[in-house]
Amino acid sequence: MQISPVLWQFLTKWLTSSALWPDQASTIAPWADALYIFLWLMTVVGMLLVGALVLFFAIRYRQERHPEAVQIEGSTLLEATWTIIPLGIFLFVFVWGAWLYFRIYNPPADAMQVYVVGKQWMWKAEHPGGQHEINALHVPSGRPVQLTMISQDVFHSYSIPAFRVKREVIPGRYTTVWFNATKPGTYHLFCTQYCGTLHSGMIGEITVMDPADYQKWTEESTSGMSLAQNGERLFASLGCISCHSGNATASGPSLAGVYGSKIKMDDGTEQVATDGFLRDVILNPSQHVPYGYKPIMPTYQGQISEEGLIDLVEYIKGLKTNYRVQQTLDTSKSDDAAPITPTASQKVTQ
Ligand code: HEC
Ligand SMILES: [Cu+2]
């Protein structure tokens, strides 16, 4: 029999490199697999049980032995048993799944932050230190890493099978996912949401390194400016600084310490200043007016790229006081000071 080379390759790969299971390379992977295997076993046991009973009854109650059909009715005990046992099993699976879900989607507070921007058809990763990567992501092992992700165009989905994580990447909204990689090595990155012609090429490589190697990598691949430093420049060049200087005369609220705080809004509600809130304010200020302020902030919709927004958010997140804001404002006012010009890396959008 002739077997096609492609099929042959597929079969040998499948048998020799356990392609049925990707590597278990994160702390969550064994837990996700355990649940999966449990569900699978439950299904197989259920199937065998039903199949065996069908066979057994077909033989036991065949026409030869029982030419006349007899109706058997009513056994509360039997019905209660086959209701309560599966209910118990399903509730157990529900609690297990919910517990796993919350573990996967609630990042620990000390997680390292990395930003990801998806677009047709590539993944851009930005580390707070300013390292940029395309279709690649370098992370240290043994440390929780949180990805804050957004799409520049359509829906995508960031999936790392070896870590058992996958999350939608959506235009206009930050989504997050986190993992703690356990084994140094390289792993596949896929887009798992059909996103256009070259969707299947929207792939990449996750490199997990020892913390020491990772440290070396960050030093070697830095672009010289951290995201927050890029943000600081944008904050000045886009004119945010004049309204958000923290001076008593400034028309906008001070942004020092605003990240993570609760803000009382004009309509009486309270909002927590998350990453997503900060991004949204810059694009739709009139929808997020804090109590006691006039809605005079201009919208920056279409003027700042997603990367620029990340830079600004990262800058505001780190803003503990207004000392540097005021210093920059003072130097930019005096004539002999060097003007603050945007650099190429800021990518103020077309
Ligand atoms: C013309 C003055 C002005 C400019 C320029 C301006 N803002 Fe604002 N900003 C305001 C005012 C006023 C508010 C509160 C009312 C509102 O949201 O419209 C505000 C609110 C905010 C808030 C919410 C803070 C809070 O406590 O609720 C953030 C964050 C913010 N601005 C960031 C920026 C950034 C980043 C830029 C530059 C890209 C910028 N602003 C440019 C005046 C300004
Ligand atoms: Cu995609």
From TrEMBL:
Keywords: Copper, Electron transport, Heme, Iron, Membrane, Metal-binding, Respiratory chain, Translocase, Transmembrane, Transmembrane helix, Transport. Residues 109-220 form the Cytochrome oxidase subunit II copper A binding domain. It is found in: Membrane. One of its GO terms (biological process) is ATP synthesis coupled electron transport. InterPro entries: CcO_II, CcO_II-like_C, Copper_CuA, Cupredoxin, Cyt_c-like_dom, Cyt_c-like_dom_sf, Cyt_c_oxidase_su2, Cyt_c_oxidase_su2_TM_dom. The keyword Transport applies. This is cytochrome-c oxidase. It is a multi-pass membrane protein. GO terms for molecular function: copper ion binding; cytochrome-c oxidase activity; heme binding; oxidoreductase activity. Residues 11-108 form the Cytochrome oxidase subunit II transmembrane region profile domain. Its EC number is 7.1.1.9. CDD domains: CuRO_HCO_II_like_2 (cd13915). The lineage of its organism: Bacteria, Pseudomonadati, Acidobacteriota, Terriglobia, Terriglobales. It holds the Pfam family Cytochrome_CBB3. Residues 226-320 form the Cytochrome c domain. PANTHER family: CYTOCHROME C OXIDASE SUBUNIT 2, CYTOCHROME C OXIDASE, SUBUNIT II. Gene3D superfamilies: 1.10.287.90, Cupredoxins - blue copper proteins (2.60.40.420). Subunits I and II form the functional core of the enzyme complex. Electrons originating in cytochrome c are transferred via heme a and Cu(A) to the binuclear center formed by heme a3 and Cu(B). Belongs to the cytochrome c oxidase subunit 2 family. The chain crosses the membrane at residues 37-59, 80-102. One of its GO terms (cellular component) is membrane. Residues 330-350 are annotated as: Disordered. It comes from Terriglobus roseus.
